[in-house]
Design a protein that fits this description.
The structure holds two protein chains of two kinds. Chain A is mainly beta. Chain A contains no helices and eleven strands. In chain B, a hairpin with a 6-residue loop joins strand 6 and strand 7. The chains are: A mainly beta, B mainly beta. Chains A and B meet through strand 5 and strand 10 of A and strand 6, strand 7 and strand 12 of B.
């Protein structure tokens, strides 16, 4: 069965850091680009970052550029999102999502995790 | 950035009736070299992650009931549910994956009338 499992969310103070993990199972992880998408409470979906299958190409939303870093270890079937200088506006459920077709990024997202909640508050 | 605008914001339809959701992109998301529109539709039920319904604007994802269909090209796209079922109550999002930042529509809340 294909699945993604996020972890690492929690409560953090403004200016703090958090590292999210996304563990993958049931598919050849290295063959697919991966994404992070977030959803603030009661709000819509916002794409955050993408990473090619090899990990060599990364992409970020302007709202997180310079603060967040996406990475992966294909030997561990795991992706991470390192989040620094966190702000209240970063409060959201963070989902990892798999690109539908290949290692390039321009594909729809066919598998989503259940999400992990990040709350930035003092 | 490409802005995706959905209409309506909410929709109430009777069971068995047709539901139509529209999505307009601020610029074309058609790659004419491969004749594909980089648009997807997702369903998000309450408390659940999004679920891919449609990709390439009109291709139905495996396991998605055939009452769901997508159409459109260029900048105008439509998701149609031909005969609404109770389990279709959800928020529906369109998305462009033509270029980063990938962007989603604001969502359309679908309810039973």
């Amino acid at each position: 069965e294909l699945y993604l499992l996020e972890s690492g969310g929690g409560l953090v103070q403004p200016g703090g850091s958090l590292r999210l993990s996304c563990a993958a199972s049931g598919f050849t992880f290295r063959s697919y680009a991966m994404n992070w998408v977030r959803q603030a409470p009661g709000e819509g979906l916002e794409w955050v970052s993408a990473l090619s299958g090899s990990g060599g190409s990364t992409y970020y939303a302007d709202s997180v550029k310079g603060r967040f870093t996406i990475s992966r270890d294909n030997s561990k079937n795991t992706m991470w999102l390192q989040m620094n200088s966190l702000r209240a506006a970063d409060t959201a459920v963070y989902y990892c999502a798999k690109a539908r077709y290949g290692s390039g990024i321009n594909y729809a997202f066919d598998i989503w995790g259940q999400g992990t909640m990040v709350t930035v508050s003092s | 950035d490409i802005v995706m605008t959905q209409s309506p914001d909410s929709l109430a339809v009777s069971l068995g009736e047709r539901a139509t959701i529209n999505c307009k992109s601020s610029q074309s998301v058609l790659d004419s070299s491969i004749n594909q529109n980089y648009v997807a539709w997702y369903q998000q039920r309450a408390g659940q992650p999004p679920r891919l319904l449609i990709y390439w604007a009109s291709s139905r994802e495996s396991g998605v009931p055939d009452r769901f269909s997508g159409s459109g090209s260029g900048t105008d796209f439509t998701l149609t549910i031909s005969s609404l079922q109770a389990e279709d109550v959800a928020v529906y999002y369109c998305q462009q994956y033509y270029t980063t930042p990938y962007t989603f529509g604001q969502g359309t809340k679908l309810e039973i009338k």
